[in-house]
């Protein structure tokens, strides 16, 4: 649930929603994109109310949901062309946008590959690319780098930074480094409430508590090796494990 949130997003900036699983990030984004109706309050996109002008808003809105929603038997190129035409682009404009998007996302070699045959990282890249087609001016990305390898993650970051001018980009993440690198503004959410919002530098100066150590395990496992814990605590006894997501472990170092 979302509780009394009031926030403004700005053109030419990336706003990162930062919060743990269940904090309310996805619910907030679902309301922003018109998937869930708000029980009270509303959202204005370019001065238009989502409750009365959603059809007009959708022409300028792009979204990448938390889980990939792709057509298994459509190719990469067919996906981009389909969504570009759906946004009202002419065939020539859609073809031009396709070539640009394939190059920017590093998917040129996969243009004729069916979505079902792509790796998880490639599918995620395609989902992010779809959010930007049709010259979307407001782009909402729900954990866009979730489950991707470091190389794909970096290429998605590069795309967001390249496409930031002239757009309002809103993304959610539970990676603090991602929010720090991408976010012009970071909004911290917990239990559906907006606790604070500001630039990464402002938040660090106001609430900083130390340094973060991120470890990436080679093998996916739910258990943390005793030897690894012992080494960390030998050098930094006060180190505290704050997140364990997939293959990543994040320690807070005082």
Automatic annotation (TrEMBL):
Q: Which GO terms describe its molecular function?
A: ABC-type transporter activity; ATP binding; ATP hydrolysis activity; lipid transporter activity
- Which SUPFAM superfamilies does the entry mention? P-loop containing nucleoside triphosphate hydrolases
Task: Indicate the transmembrane segments per the record.
Answer: none
On whether rRNA-binding is a keyword of this UniProt record, the answer is no
Q: Which InterPro entries match?
A: AAA+_ATPase, ABC_transporter-like_ATP-bd, ABC_transporter-like_CS, ABCA, P-loop_NTPase
Instruction: Kindly list the GO CC terms recorded for this protein.
Output: membrane
> Out of the domains of life, which is the source?
Eukaryota
Where in the numbering of this chain does the ABC transporter domain appear? 1-216
The alphabetical list of record keywords is: ATP-binding, Nucleotide-binding, Repeat, Transport
Protein known as:
ABCA4 protein
